[in-house]
Amino acid sequence: MKKYFYVFTIQYLGYRFHGWQKQPNVKTLHLMVDRTLNFILEGKRFKSLSSGRTDAMVSAENAAFELFLFEPIEDENAFLELFNHNLPQDIRATSIQEVDAEFNIIKHSKIKEYLYLFTCGEKCHPFCAPIMTTILDDLDIDIMKQGAKLFEGKHYFKSYCYKPTDNGIYDREILLCELVENTIYTANYFPKKTYLLRVKGKGFMRNQIRLMMGTLIDLGKGKLSIEDIKNSLLPGSNTRMEYIAPASGLILNNIQFE
């Protein structure tokens, strides 16, 4: 039987979901996507597969999943409109594209860009909570900017993997890592100054970016030094970075298939 393959890009606010992957007795993004697809496909056979998992409370500007069907979609625009009409309001599909059988959304080489949105020094309006982390302490933003650049390039990232094993692959490359003032997200209840950590690379380990962000927060508080970060990235380093930054500040900003 002939199969048909489609790649969807989607956006979602992850705050009320327990991540992407289906799990027993909890609400996940994959569950809601598949439930909606099952409804609009009227019970026809299908399978959906994501390009990667996001953790609980992590959001996305541009995530992707592949849909496998046994009948073609006759009108892609109409299907996209119907899909969005039935998805919950915190999930939106932005595009659909037919691909060939050779395309594998998991194995196909891709570059991911993440943003981490945060502020510091004051208690924020509760409406900030779904996408922004608030650090009540004052932070030295200038030294955090210096620290962020240390992650760029090829390094040994075992210190930035949650529960690493002895046989993991920890030599990895970060194509871009910078901490900048936020000019992307605005709201009248946001504090005057907010910041973004922008990280781009081909593959990330479990909680890697949140551990990197947590390390920069500890750097900004004076709990760690620039030398501590340099040493943590040396080959064979067994330094353990303890602080995993909260998930709700993390946003998958873009996936670029090569």
UniProtKB/TrEMBL annotation:
Job of this protein: Formation of pseudouridine at positions 38, 39 and 40 in the anticodon stem and loop of transfer RNAs.
Oligomeric form and interacting partners: Homodimer.
Active-site residues (renumbered): 55 (nucleophile)
Gene responsible for this protein: truA
InterPro entries xref list: PsdUridine_synth_cat_dom_sf, PsdUridine_synth_TruA, PsdUridine_synth_TruA_a/b_dom, PsdUridine_synth_TruA_C, TruA/RsuA/RluB/E/F_N
Residues holding substrate: 114
Keyword tRNA processing appears in the UniProt entry: yes
Organism: Flavivirga jejuensis
Protein name: tRNA pseudouridine synthase A
Protein keywords: Isomerase, tRNA processing
Keyword tRNA processing attributed: yes
SUPFAM superfamilies linked to this entry: Pseudouridine synthase
EC main group: isomerase
Pseudouridine synthase I TruA alpha/beta domain ranges (all copies): 148-257
UniProt record similarity statement: Belongs to the tRNA pseudouridine synthase TruA family.
The enzyme's E.C. designation: 5.4.99.12
Superkingdom of the organism of origin: Bacteria
Catalytic activity, reaction form: uridine(38/39/40) in tRNA = pseudouridine(38/39/40) in tRNA
